[in-house]
Amino acid sequence: MEKPTIVVVGTMHMDFTVYVDHLPRPGETVLGRGFEMSPGGKGANQAVAISRLGGISYLVSRVGKDYVGDLLLDNARRNGVRIDFVKRDPEAHSGVALIFVDESGENMIAVAPGVDSRISPADVREAETALAEASAVLAQLEIPVETAVEAVRVAKSKGKITILNPAPAKPLPEEVYSLIDILTPNVRELEALAGVAVEADEDVVSAANLLRERGVKAVVVTLGKRGAMIVDERGHRVVSTYEVPVVDTVGAGDAFNGALALALSLGASIDEAVSFANMVAAIKVTRRGAQAGLPRTVDVLRFAEERGITSGVLESLKELME
Question: Which of 26, 79, 94, 163 could form a disulfide with 68 if both were Cys (CB 3.0 to 4.6 A apart)?
Answer without folding.
Answer: 94
